[in-house]
Amino acid sequence: MIYIIPVIILFIGIINCDFNQRKGRVLWFVVYAVMSLLIGLRYKVGGDTYNYNNFFENSSDIYSWTPINLALFEPGFSYLTSIVKTYSESIYVYQIVIILIFNYLLFRFIRRNTEFKFSALLLIYITIYIYFGTEILRESISVGILLNAYDLIKEKRWIIYTALVVLATSFHSSGLIGIIFPFVAKLKFKYFLSYFIIWGLILIFIQTIMSYLSGFEILAKITRYSTHQYVGYLWSSFRLIYFGIIPLIFLSFFKKRNITIKFEGIICFQILLSIGLFIVPIIFQRLINYTILFYLVALVNQTIPSIVRRIKLNKKTLVSQFSIFILIITILAHSSYYIHLDFYKRWYPYHSILDPVEESSRLKYVPI
Description:
68% of the residues lie in helices and 0% in strands. It has helices at 4-18, 25-40, 47-58, 75-87, 91-113, 117-134, 137-149, 151-155, 158-171, 181-184, 192-213, 220-225, 233-255, 264-275, 281-288, 292-313, 318-340. It is globular, with a radius of gyration of 21 Å. The model has no long low-confidence stretch (mean pLDDT 87).
């Protein structure tokens, strides 16, 4: 199966580069190209892909572009679409441009935040990458921008950071979450119980006022998302395990051993957001898209070094055993969500420009 190709390349990178502290620049570029072509040349793979294909086909060129119709897609994304449409009518060119931008932002973030870049990319690829690359095209670029803007908070370069938040929001309105990232960055796990109590009260308030929001047209979509008929409690439960409980176990284990965790504040924030999946499921899922990549990179930073030491020294320790356990359970928890709910049908079987076949089973996942 074609999805295995990046996995094989990444395993080679892990063994030859991550485990031996080599940079592997050529292999890094190869996997960038392969993953870009895999997503860019797909044919109607992913539910939201259908909507983006229709949007591209109906878009005007750059000379007729207007940002007025904000109800459809955000101006930053529609402007990018019009630029592509000016020079090419091919949907494949459009898809490749989008994934090249997202992959650049993703690869840059990984390379700057972990020494085990192939391991981090493999974990991201297995758990969330196909979803980012085929379902949430606008939001994936917005997420990528904020990933790379995060270091500016520590550097206190607020003008550039604010500009990047505005840019992210121009691709997807959820990019406004960047406004609170400077506050989130200060969260500490030792105060998590206090955060939990405060957040619980906030969620109760949100749930109380949801019934009153339906009277406002602009908030009608949010209130529709708040009903569990849209996704079901099973959906929220799987997500709570993957986005909340496992990260909570991860933080608790390492912080009890006084080990510094990269992106500790973001991970605390993600755990809190996961509780909101039972209040407004889709909205909180959208927000978690902005935290999950921070968490996965932090997970690799803490687990892979101990696994490498165990392999080299053939020494069993609690930390190394826990590291293997938490990595396996992370992958299994996410995989079980997709397999149990049949969501894998969004992306499997894979079709491309070489075999443009439309899967009828995929149509039920096309957003209306």
